[in-house]
C-alpha cells in the first residue's frame, strides 16, 4: 500500500524548500509595502486639520499550504504575518483565531510566524479558515482590522484504491462470443483527484486469464476465450486490481474478487449410453404395467436437458407404449395390451430420444436426438384356463324333471403343458342349488323342477380350475332362461266388485282375465274379445236393492294353452243408486229406510243435534248426583251415623231392656280415636281407664259428659262442633221420647217451656218448640 515511500519523502523535501523560498521573498514585498504604508501613515498624522483618507491595509499574504502526513521532529512552518504598524519594538502583538487556532496552528505573537503542531490529513479536512489581527500589546486595542486567510492541506498519495462493493458475483452464458460483457467493477480513491495522479486509477486482471479480460480505464470485465463450455467448467474466480498514479511505479493499489458462473444453454443433444436394451415381460401382466426403463443422458440443465421418448418403428408399437418420467427423465415402457407367450415370444422396438427445447443459436450443431433398439422377451406364465366364450346363455323349460341338460361350457389350459380342467359352480352364485355341472365335461343340469313364475332367470357362474400346476381358475357367466309352460289356470286379473245402477241401460261391463286368450262360460250373456277380456250384459230393466243388492256370478274361464287349463271364478256385482246421468250416488242400503227427501246434509244435522242433546242430559244428571263428602269418615260400624228403623217404639225411658245402651258406644271412640278425612292422625291415644260406662249402664248424662270431655281433650278432633245422634234419651226424662217421628207432625198439647231450664245444651230445642208455641198462641 505504501509503495514509493522514498519518492514521497523526496517530494515533501522539495515542497519544504519551495515554501522556504516563498517565505523568504514575502518579507521583501511586505517591507516594500510597509514602507509605503508607513509613509502614508506619517503623512496623515503630520498634517493636522487635513482631511484624512482611509489607508490601505498594511499587510498582504496569499494562501498558505501545508503538506499532509508530515512526520518531522519540528513543527512545520506554515507562513509569517507582519503588519506595517509593527515597528519592531515589541508593542505589536499578533493574534490568531479560527479553525484549529491554538491547537493545530499556533502563532508567535511577536514575529507572526505560524506553525502546524499536528500531522494533518487532507482526507479528514482539506483546508482551514483562520483570522489574523494585530493589536497593541499594552492595551490590546486593534492596530489593524482582522483579516481571514486559508491554510490548504496539500495532498500526497497516501490512500490506496478500494472496491466498496466487493466481492462480486456475475453470470454469463456458456459458449458466449469473445468480448461479451460480464460486469463492471469500480474502485474509489480518497486522494485529491484534482492534484496530481494520486486518484488516477488503472484496472488490470491478476487472476482469470486467459478466460476473461478487463478494460483498464472502465473496469468492464469481458470474455476472452470463445466456446467456454459449462459442462467442462462452470465457475471461474477472477481477481481485478485497481492502481493509482496512473498505474505507474510507486502507485498504491487495491484488489477484489469476482466469481463468474457460466449459465447453461442447450448445446448438447441427448445420448443413449448403449445402443441396444433388453427387457422381458411375463404374459400374465395386465395392460398398464411397466415393462422397463431406459434413459438418454443430456448434460444440460433445466428445460435445456428435457428429453422426450417415442417409438419410431418396430413390431410391438401396438402392444407397448412409452412415456417420459419428468422426475427422472427416463423413458418408461408399458404394456398397452396383454401379451401371449404361446402366440409371440419376442418384440423389437426402435426408440428415439429428443430435446423438447432447442436453442436456435446452436441448431446447426444438431441434430438434438438419438436412437436405440429395445428387445422385449415374453416370458411364459402359468395362466388359468380360458373359456371359449366370454359368457353363455341357455334355455330350459319350467317344471322339467331334475337332471335335464341345460347346456355345456368348455374351457382349456392355454399353457404348453395343456393340463386338464375341472368345473364347478360357486355356491354363492347358486345359493339354492338349482343346477349342477359335470366336473370333467362342463355339462350343466337341473337338480329340481323350475318355476318360471317364481324366478324366470337364473344367473350363475361356472369356475374352471387347472388340475396340476398352481391350480389357477377362471370364471364365466352363465345366464339360464326358464321357458314358460301352461301350468297355471286362468283367473281374474283383479277381484274388484262390479257396480251397476239400480236402473241400468242395456249395456255391458268389461272385466279382465289372464294374459292368455281365454273363453268364458256363464249363464249371463257374455261378449268375448281377443285381449283376454269379456263383457257382461244386463238382461233386466232394473233391480230392487231392498230385495237383493249383491249378486255373485260364477264364471268358468278356459285358456288355449297346451295342455288347456280352466278355473271357475266368482264375479261380485253390487247394485247402486245412480242419478239421471248414471253417476253412482250410493251403494249402501241404510239410506233407504229413512224418509224420502232427506239429503245427506240433513241426516248429518239431525245426528249432530241428537249427540248434543245426549251430552246435555248426561251433564245435567252428573251435576244432580254430585255431593260434597264430609270431612270426617265414620265406619259402617258406627251406628250413630245410621238411621235404624224398627216397628217397636219401646217402653219409654223406663224400659231398659228394649235397647242396649252399649250399641251407642263407638268402637273407635272407645279408645280415644276418631277417624278424620281432612287430616291423617299422627298419634293413637289409648283408652282412658275408668271414664266409660259399662255395657249395661243406663245413665246417659254421664255417658254424654264423658264423650264431651274426650272430644275436648282430643287433639285429633275436628275444630268445629258436630251433631251427635243418639238413639236413647235416658231414664226419667219428662220430655218423653225424642225419637218419635210423629211428634213433629201431630197436634200435641205438650208444653215445651221446660226446655229453657235444661241449660244451654237444650237451648236450640227450646227455641224451636217454644217459638212455635208462642207463634200459635199469638195467632
From TrEMBL:
One term under GO cellular component: adherens junction
Membrane-traversing stretches: 592-623
This protein's record includes keyword Metal-binding: yes
Recorded topology in the membrane: Single-pass type I membrane protein
Localisation: Cell junction, Adherens junction; Cell membrane
GO terms (BP aspect): adherens junction organization; calcium-dependent cell-cell adhesion via plasma membrane cell adhesion molecules; cell migration; cell morphogenesis; cell-cell adhesion mediated by cadherin; cell-cell junction assembly; homophilic cell adhesion via plasma membrane adhesion molecules; morphogenesis of an epithelium
Residue ranges constituting the Cadherin domain according to the UniProt record: 83-163, 164-272, 273-387, 388-492, 528-593
Main location: other
Gene Ontology MF: a single term: cadherin binding
Segment forming the signal sequence: 1-19
Entry keyword Metal-binding: yes
Alphabetic keyword roster: Calcium, Cell adhesion, Cell junction, Cell membrane, Glycoprotein, Membrane, Metal-binding, Repeat, Signal, Transmembrane, Transmembrane helix
UniProt xrefs under InterPro entries: Cadherin, Cadherin-like_dom, Cadherin-like_sf, Cadherin_CS, Cadherin_Y-type_LIR, Catenin-bd_sf
Protein purpose: Cadherins are calcium-dependent cell adhesion proteins.
Name used for this protein in its record: Cadherin 11, type 2, OB-cadherin (osteoblast)
Taxonomic source organism: Oncorhynchus mykiss (Rainbow trout)
Amino acid at each position: 500500500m505504501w509503495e514509493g515511500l522514498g519518492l514521497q519523502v523526496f517530494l515533501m523535501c522539495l515542497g519544504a524548500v519551495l515554501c522556504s523560498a516563498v517565505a523568504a521573498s514575502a518579507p521583501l514585498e511586505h517591507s516594500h509595502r510597509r514602507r509605503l504604508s508607513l509613509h502614508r501613515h506619517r503623512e496623515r498624522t503630520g498634517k493636522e486639520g487635513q482631511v484624512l483618507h482611509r489607508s490601505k491595509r498594511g499587510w498582504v499574504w496569499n494562501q498558505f499550504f501545508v503538506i499532509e502526513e508530515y512526520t518531522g521532529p519540528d513543527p512545520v512552518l506554515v507562513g509569517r504575518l507582519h503588519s506595517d504598524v509593527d515597528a519592531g519594538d515589541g508593542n505589536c502583538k499578533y493574534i490568531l483565531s479560527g479553525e484549529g487556532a491554538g491547537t493545530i496552528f499556533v502563532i508567535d505573537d511577536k514575529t507572526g510566524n505560524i506553525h502546524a503542531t499536528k500531522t494533518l490529513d487532507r482526507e479528514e479536512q482539506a483546508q482551514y479558515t483562520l483570522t489574523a489581527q494585530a493589536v497593541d500589546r499594552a492595551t490590546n486595542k486593534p492596530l489593524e482590522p482582522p483579516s481571514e486567510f486559508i491554510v490548504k492541506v496539500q495532498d500526497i498519495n497516501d490512500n490506496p484504491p478500494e472496491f466498496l462493493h466487493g466481492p462480486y458475483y456475475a453470470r454469463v452464458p456458456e459458449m458466449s462470443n469473445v468480448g461479451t460483457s460480464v460486469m463492471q467493477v469500480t474502485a474509489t480513491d480518497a486522494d485529491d483527484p484534482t492534484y496530481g495522479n494520486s486518484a488516477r486509477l488503472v484496472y488490470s486482471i491478476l487472476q482469470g486469464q486467459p478466460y476473461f479480460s478487463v478494460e483498464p480505464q472502465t473496469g468492464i470485465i469481458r470474455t476472452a476465450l470463445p466456446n467456454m463450455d459449462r459442462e467442462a467448467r462452470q465457475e471461474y474466480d477472477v481477481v481485478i486490481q485497481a492502481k493509482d498514479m496512473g498505474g505507474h511505479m510507486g502507485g498504491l493499489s487495491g484488489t477484489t474478487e469476482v466469481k463468474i458462473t457460466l449459465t447453461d444453454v442447450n448445446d448438447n443433444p441427448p445420448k443413449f449410453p448403449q445402443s441396444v436394451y433388453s427387457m422381458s415381460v411375463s404374459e400374465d401382466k395386465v395392460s398398464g404395467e411397466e415393462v422397463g426403463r431406459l434413459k438418454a443422458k443430456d448434460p444440460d440443465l433445466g428445460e435445456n436437458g428435457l428429453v422426450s421418448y417415442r417409438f419410431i418403428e418396430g413390431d410391438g408399437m401396438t402392444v407397448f407404449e412409452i412415456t417420459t418420467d419428468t422426475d427422472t427423465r427416463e423413458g418408461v415402457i408399458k404394456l398397452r395390451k396383454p401379451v401371449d407367450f404361446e402366440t409371440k415370444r419376442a418384440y423389437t422396438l426402435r426408440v428415439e430420444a429428443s430435446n423438447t427445447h432447442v436453442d436456435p443459436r446452436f441448431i446447426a450443431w444438431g441434430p438434438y436426438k438419438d436412437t436405440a433398439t429395445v428387445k422385449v422377451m415374453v416370458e411364459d406364465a402359468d395362466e388359468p384356463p380360458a373359456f371359449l366364450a366370454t359368457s353363455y346363455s341357455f334355455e330350459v323349460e319350467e317344471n322339467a324333471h331334475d337332471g335335464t341338460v341345460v347346456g355345456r361350457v368348455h374351457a382349456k389350459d392355454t399353457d404348453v403343458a395343456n393340463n386338464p380342467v375341472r368345473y364347478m359352480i360357486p355356491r354363492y352364485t347358486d345359493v339354492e342349488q338349482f343346477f349342477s355341472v359335470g366336473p370333467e365335461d362342463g355339462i350343466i343340469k337341473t337338480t329340481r323342477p323350475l318355476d318360471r313364475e317364481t324366478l324366470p332367470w337364473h344367473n350363475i357362474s361356472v369356475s374352471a380350475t387347472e388340475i396340476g400346476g398352481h391350480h389357477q381358475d377362471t370364471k364365466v357367466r352363465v345366464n339360464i332362461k326358464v321357458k314358460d309352460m301352461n301350468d297355471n289356470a286362468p283367473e281374474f286379473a283383479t277381484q274388484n266388485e262390479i257396480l251397476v245402477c239400480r236402473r241400468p241401460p242395456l249395456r255391458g261391463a268389461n272385466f279382465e282375465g289372464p294374459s292368455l286368450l281365454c273363453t268364458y262360460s256363464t249363464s249371463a250373456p257374455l261378449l268375448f274379445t281377443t285381449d283376454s277380456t269379456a263383457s257382461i250384459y244386463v238382461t233386466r230393466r232394473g233391480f230392487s236393492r231392498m230385495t237383493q243388492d249383491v249378486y255373485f256370478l260364477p264364471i268358468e274361464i278356459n285358456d288355449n294353452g297346451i295342455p288347456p287349463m280352466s278355473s271357475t271364478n266368482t264375479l261380485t256385482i253390487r247394485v247402486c243408486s245412480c242419478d239421471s246421468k248414471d253417476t253412482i250416488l250410493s251403494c249402501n242400503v241404510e239410506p233407504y229406510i229413512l224418509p224420502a227427501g232427506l239429503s245427506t246434509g240433513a241426516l248429518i244435522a239431525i245426528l249432530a243435534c241428537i249427540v248434543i242433546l245426549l251430552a246435555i242430559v248426561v251433564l245435567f244428571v252428573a251435576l244432580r248426583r254430585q255431593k260434597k263428602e264430609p270431612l270426617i269418615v265414620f265406619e259402617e260400624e258406627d251406628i250413630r251415623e245410621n238411621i235404624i228403623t224398627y216397628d217397636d217404639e219401646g217402653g219409654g225411658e223406663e224400659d231398659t231392656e228394649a235397647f242396649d245402651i252399649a250399641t251407642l258406644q263407638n268402637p273407635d271412640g272407645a279408645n280415644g280415636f276418631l277417624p278424620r278425612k281432612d287430616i291423617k292422625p299422627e298419634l293413637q291415644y289409648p283408652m282412658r281407664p275408668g271414664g266409660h260406662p259399662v255395657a249395661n249402664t243406663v245413665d246417659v248424662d254421664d255417658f254424654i259428659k264423658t264423650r264431651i270431655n274426650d272430644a275436648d281433650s282430643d287433639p285429633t278432633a275436628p275444630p268445629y262442633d258436630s251433631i251427635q245422634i243418639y238413639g236413647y234419651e235416658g231414664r226419667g226424662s219428662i220430655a218423653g221420647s225424642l225419637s218419635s217421628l210423629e211428634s213433629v207432625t201431630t197436634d200435641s198439647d205438650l208444653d215445651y217451656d221446660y226446655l229453657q231450664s235444661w241449660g244451654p245444651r237444650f237451648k236450640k230445642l227450646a227455641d224451636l218448640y217454644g217459638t212455635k208455641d208462642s207463634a200459635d198462641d199469638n195467632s
